[in-house]
UniProtKB/TrEMBL annotation:
The lineage of its organism: Bacteria, Bacillati, Actinomycetota, Actinomycetes, Kitasatosporales. Belongs to the D-isomer specific 2-hydroxyacid dehydrogenase family. This is 2-hydroxyacid dehydrogenase. It comes from the Bacteria. Residues 109-295 form the D-isomer specific 2-hydroxyacid dehydrogenase NAD-binding domain.
Amino acid sequence: MEILAFGVQADEKPLIVQAFQDHEVRCLDVFLNEDTAPIAAGYEVVSTSVNAELGPRVLQILDAGGTRMIAQRSTGFNNIDLRTAERLGMTVARVSSYSPYSVAEFAWTLAMAVNRRIVRASIRTRDFDFRLDGLLGRDMHGRTAGILGTGKIGEAFSRIAHGFGMRLLGWDVAENPACAELGMTYVSKEQLLAESDLITLHVPLMPETQHLLDAAALKAMKDDAILVNSSRGGLIDTAALVMELREGRFTGVGLDVYEAEAGIFYLDKSLETVEDDTLARLVTFPNVLVTSHQAYYTEDAVRQIIDATVRNVLDYRAGRRSGNVLVPRS
């Protein structure tokens, strides 16, 4: 069986080839979209990344080329038109879970980097400027961490916060007993925003969570709060966030995701004119750190993602159905 994998990073390629050793797999660094979809003609199975564009038109092109299965190498699937896939009789599977520590640890990396001004300090020392002016941070111990979404990743983040000696506030549709055992108090979103010194997002992007932090929610946060998002960019109204930053609010903001990241993240845009005015403005703030959707990107997590993708493909071939299947084989 031949498999075509889109959006493969250089570090991923040898792992994918090794995992699919019993099958022929072709790895491309380009992302799947309307322009690149014709490349998949003749491939029964196509593997995609989270930044692939799998709307109706792309799915129709894949279907016309003979693709019968989409194996997405991510947990999120808001980029896939599942109704169209079902209508076309295409099987769709994702990776329902992988190491929660990869994302939780990176979220903490962002939080501490903006709190202790690590990027600014590094740039200064490269220029042999060893002053401490403007690098004043603060202890996390004794302060309040607000975790929006207390699933596996939120729980892992909470355990680290507990280790720092922080007070824990949580918000979710259902309480996580493991978080409660750490001393977490579940409160309304409004109370969490008003009382938290550090706020982190670990909820999926759905219509109900689109702009979970809108203009009103951002205004409800403490002026000196730290905000971290390593989940999905659409959870934050970025234009509203820029407005708050322009008013001098927030100690620091760490963003590993951006709501208009498709077509930008994972690509080299350094020699191009920046057309996204919001992103261009965002990265100019000295208290903002933006990274390129890399929170999941550890050897442990990537291996788990690839192994799960292999199982999804094998299940498809054998006619089996697992919890990873979003649209079953017709």
